[in-house]
Design a protein that fits this description.
By secondary structure, the chain is of the alpha/beta class. The protein folds into two domains: about 1-110 and about 185-205, 3-Layer(aba) Sandwich (Rossmann fold), CATH 3.40.50; about 110-180. Helix content is about 45%, strand content about 15%. It contains eight helices and four strands, in the order βαβαβαβααααα. It has helices at about 10-20, 40-55, 75-85, 110-115, 120-125, 150-160, 170-175, 190-205, and strands spanning about 1-5, 30-35, 60-65, 105-110. Strands 2-1-3-4 form a four-stranded parallel β-sheet, sandwiched between helices. Helix 1 (about 10-20) packs parallel to helix 7 and helix 2 runs parallel beside helix 3 (about 75-85). The protein starts with a strand and ends with a helix.
């Protein structure tokens, strides 16, 4: 089996290269296509999927990941569903007559950094001066951190003396994701993504 991931930016690409091998069997391969921005992903996804539809093999699957960015996640998800179906792909939400699907759409609520807040041990392993934070009110629900999870993580790291000159998203994503344990992540958004991968793998094993 091979899984194609379509993402909107480099930090997600870096994170997936560390995370996905922890969530799939060793005999499953994957590739990540970074379309550089949310607007570019939404603009280019349909022609990319249509082209892929022409040669995709029976044992290949597709995952599309898009940040919520404080927009209406249901509207974004429906937009992705419409794009997939117009390109000829059955999705996990809209399966074929026997319940099979090729494509999974997932919305990251609200940004990738929520996934990092969902794994406190990974953050502390990557940045040892950061103290335990998950019990503190602003961070108890990784998917509901106010003011933006990217900004919140940047402030947390800066407070402890890391990246004081700016927030290098790709470097941070690569550093934290290498320590993440998918089964222990407290971000519901992450677990929905993880469950989507499980559904893909279980479908292959049927």
């Amino acid at each position: 089996m091979h899984i194609h991931f379509f993402v909107e930016e480099g930090s997600m690409e870096a994170a997936l290269h560390n995370l996905v091998p922890k969530m799939i069997p060793a005999n499953v391969t994957f590739s990540v296509y970074n379309l550089r921005s949310k607007s570019e992903l939404l603009r280019k996804l349909q022609p990319r999927l249509r082209a892929l539809h022409n040669y995709i093999r029976e044992n290949e699957r597709i995952v599309v990941l898009l940040d919520e960015d404080r927009e209406d996640c249901r509207e974004i998800k429906q937009q992705l569903e419409n794009i997939a179906q117009s390109a000829g792909f059955n999705t996990k939400s809209q399966r074929d007559s026997v319940g099979r699907f090729v494509l999974v759409n997932r919305i990251v609520i609200e940004e990738l950094e929520a996934w990092f807040f969902g794994d406190e041990n990974a953050v502390v392993s990557a940045y040892p001066r950061v103290r335990v934070f998950s019990a503190r009110e602003p961070y108890r629900n990784p998917d509901a951190i106010k003011g933006g999870t990217c900004e919140a993580l940047g402030r947390l790291l800066k407070y402890h003396g890391y990246h004081t000159g700016g927030f290098p998203k790709i470097e941070v994503a690569r550093s934290i994701s290498q320590f993440m344990e998918p089964n222990k992540n407290t971000s519901r958004s992450f677990q929905v993504f993880h469950n989507g991968l499980r559904a893909i793998i279980s479908q292959e094993n049927q």
